[in-house]
Amino acid sequence: MKFYHSTTPGAVESILRDGLKVGMFGIAKRMTDTGMVSAGDWADEYYGDRPIYLAVRPEYYNKAPRQLGLELEVEIDDPRKLIADLPSLGDTGAYLEVDGLGWEHVPPGMASVANDGYVGFDQLLRPGSPAAMAAIRTTGTAAMPEDIPAEKITRLGLLENRRRFAEDAESRERFSKAVEELPPDVPRRIIGQPGESKEKSYQKMAKMGRNLKQIFAKEADRSFIDSLTTVHWGNKKDILDILLDYKSLRRDELSTAVHLSPGEIGQKGPWGFDYGLVVKGYITLLANDMDDLGTGSGKKYKAYLPAQRTQSSGVNKGVMRIYYQGEYRDYQIIVLGKEDWKPRVVNGINYNEALVDNWKIEAVIVPRGQQAAIEIARFEKYLAKVGIDAFVGVPLTVGQKLGSVSESLLRRYVRHTINGEEQL
């Protein structure tokens, strides 16, 4: 999971060389609108040493460190090693009491762990405790009581941003130009054709999609695209049907929601579906908003496209519209690289879409709850029966199995822990 640390000009080179050290002079400061300020020397007495202060997102206090090359991206393999950032809790109105912090008005995020407005240091400074996790969620910051090696640290800065934005802009410009140069016989949209048969509409969609995918293949940053996590969501019957016919269906392109890592998979997918398949395959097209593609139903393509095409190479899905070429240049409709990543998120659910071809099932997701253990056992038995080797679990355990813990996973862990819920 990535965290962020701002430092001073005099310290940045030594940090990149030697890593971040507990007790290191100069790392308890942060850049604010009024300049570099102390992060709270008073807290050292309770930590026993100067911890490493981290933020859960970049440019947390101010954009200046990123622009000056003084913001560092830090990879923390296990966020449950983190403890509360006491100075930032002070910023929420906390005051010192004997062996803890108290509030006259407890922040909502701390209410479940506070006892009569009080939380002890023994709870706040115990790695992975409910109080520590609640504090991280409340402040958006954390303290690391262990050294962080140099190989876990990356410098972020203005030149790096300029290069990445320039490359991204060039890719979108080329994508836009290629759309402009599409042959006249390539349709631009499906809507608005009264009396047109569904067969004709799906054939048009397939043709539009085929052309967009060819452009995408030329311009996409494949290293970024291949790093993404893709999940096909559905109801229980949908997932069981796919598992049953897995060998033939994996040749068909699959519509998926997309995440930066397995640890960001939420409890549910679009439209409230809570069963899912984590799949790995070749992404042929990716959009920040599924509505900008409108890929339609895979079953409909099988019904309306020539049988010889779908039987030989599987179902290749299409799109319902191709935008005016300038819109692909000016807006991040299609995700070509990291700088374009701006998924539509509603209530914590990603409503983006990737089409994935030649996919393999990595994990099966079942809903968390009292029946989760029973569902896991049933799916494991079913997978063994149909000959599929894949992990089965709830989103939390799937994220832990397939990748590092993310901020969203941390937040779920905090919420379930402080509410005393079971952890499946």
Please explain how this structure is put together.
- By secondary structure, the protein is of the alpha+beta class.
- The protein has two domains: 2-156, no CATH class; 163-418, no CATH class.
- Helix content is 36%, strand content 20%.
- The protein has 17 helices and 17 strands.
- The strands form six sheets. Strands 11, 12, 13, 16 and 17 form a five-stranded mixed β-sheet that branches. It has a three-stranded antiparallel β-sheet with strand order 1-5-10. A three-stranded antiparallel β-sheet has the order 6-7-8.
- Strand 6 and strand 7 form a beta hairpin.
- Helix 6 (130-139) packs across helix 17, helix 7 runs antiparallel to helix 8 (198-219) and helix 8 crosses helix 12.
- The longest helix is centred in the middle third of the chain and has 23 residues, at 158-180.
- The protein is globular and about 75 Å long.
- The two termini are 21 Å apart.
- Residues 26-38, 405-409 and 416-424 have low confidence and may be disordered.
- The percentage of residues in β strands lies in 15-25%
What integer is the average pLDDT? 84
- The tally of helices reads 17
Distance between the termini: 21 Å
What proportion of the residues is helical, as a percent range?
25-40%
Task: Return Rg in Å.
Answer: 25 Å
DSSP strand tally: 17
Major sheet description: 5 strands, mixed
Structural class: alpha+beta
Low-confidence stretches: 26-38, 405-409, 416-424
The figure for the number of domains is: 2
Describe the global form.
Answer: globular
